[in-house]
Amino acid sequence: MGRTRNTRLEAAIQELGLPQARLVARFRAMAAENGAHELDATNQSSIARWIAGTRPSGRAPAILAATLSRGLGRTVTLADIGLAADGGGEPQPPEWSANTLTTLVDLGGIDLDMDRRRVVVGSAYSVAGLALPSESWWKEAAERARARAAVSVHTVTAQDVESVREMTVFFSRRDQQRGGRGVGRTALVAYLRTEVAEYLAGRFPSEELRRAMTSAAGELAYLAGWTAFDAGEHPVALRWFTVATQLAEEARDAPLAGHVLRAMAHQAVDLKQPGQAVRLSTDSLAGKRYTNASWREKALIGVVHARALAADNRRKEALGALLQAENDLGRAGEGDEPGRVWFFGEASIAHETAAALRDLGDLKGAEEQFRRSVRTRRAQFARTHSVTLGYLGAVQVQQGQLEAACETWGQALDAMSGVQSGRARETVVQMRRALSPFRNRGGSAAADLDAKARAVLGVG
What's the mean pLDDT when you consider all of the chain? Predict the structure, then answer.
């Protein structure tokens, strides 16, 4: 019996519009990023055979889907290209189908092992990796967690939950002060995969206590993801965000799940994947993730949704989302902040609003909101403060305000003292790029600032 031509794969390749030689080059690059060196021999004949109906073996289907996803700017699943596994449809990605506790411990081990972490960090941040599970997965998550047998003799108490929350606050404050790199993150991950994992594997006297501990663990996993994101380790961050979402759903903590999805959307925006950012931010606002959230929580996830829409050139929808977020914030009263580690205050929301306005081309409005963020931020949030100042300076120089930008960037560099953050470092790189037309003018503010920026980056 002859092979059946794979018309779905053929259509996706035609949509991409690249010559097969360039598609092969992109495929090999994606394979190399993911350590799939067995695919180095892939050539145009391989592509032709796959279109003709030969099924690629090993990791080739997943690498092919990731290559097409990146090129098309949207998630391309194995089913989309006619390569879903036989027998009842496409399986869930391993991160969703695996046991949450096992995934947490294994990922923590990777994160703490520098050699193994380098392999993950060097892999591709793929939009295919953002594929969310089916509706049935969401509905059944809590039941699966309840059915999980205890493997630890420890009986979890309310004091154990409080201990995890206290440690989360401690690690969050350190992250805000020092950034996502360094020993603080290492200690966070070690605590998560040992003590917290043991709690999750223990015995729960009540369903209420199980949900409370699972939610607390989800917040800590979210923080592990955020520190990896801040350090620029995006594939690691995506895995932690996945675990955090699982834990949030197992706890039936819908607002927490919404905020993890918000973080994933934020990450997608930063990594120039606007279509995925819109999808993720839309999911972050779905159902109880929005309706059960406080007004400040609603405002923050709403403004990140606006950022995603702005990045996707959906101006009218972005402006509508910003207005809704502003209305939600206006309904927040004193004491409306949720009891979580992150801060949903005016400074955070102003920062995200400014970024959305900047992407919409409203530089004056963006400058005003960045200034508002700087003015209202709590002093201990040094990392975010330095990033906001960096963005403010960039908006000022775009408007021709070189002197003001240099002053702002000088403040940003001062604020970075003691901060180890990939995002903060990137603002310095962008700062130097913006200063390049002016820094050769000896004795100028731009030249002096560039020298200071080189010192911060540790370059000659």
Answer: 83
Provide the token pair at 61.
Answer: 């289907």
Do 219 and 162 share a structural domain?
yes
CA nearest neighbour of 202 among 131, 129, 150, 134:
150
82: left (phi over 0), alpha (psi -120 to 50) or beta: left
Residue type, 289: R
Nearest to 436 by CA among 401, 402, 407: 402
Domain check: are 147 and 16 in the same one? no
CA dist., res. 447 & res. 406, Å (int): 10
Residue 334: inside a domain, yes or no?
Answer: no
Question: What total number of domains does the chain contain?
Answer: 3
Question: Which pair of tokens denotes residue 303?
Answer: 């403004």
Looking at the fold, whether 100 and 164 belong to one and the same domain comes out as yes
CB of 356 within 8 A of CB of 303? yes
Give residue-wise pLDDT tens across range 38-72: 888 899 999 999 999 998 887 788 788 878 877 87
Q: Are residues 114 and 40 in the same domain?
A: no
Reduced to 3 states, what is the DSSP secondary structure of residue 381?
Answer: coil
> Tens digit of pLDDT for each residue in 204-262?
999 999 999 999 999 999 999 999 898 888 888 888 998 999 899 999 999 999 999 99
CB 229 within 8 A of CB 269: no
Q: When comparing pLDDT for 38 and 88, which is higher?
A: 38
| 220 and 145 assigned to the same domain | yes
CA angle 347, 263, 356 (to 5 degrees): 55
- Return the higher-pLDDT residue of 288 and 144: 288
Structure tokens at 328: 């939600």
Domain containing 65 equals: 7-72
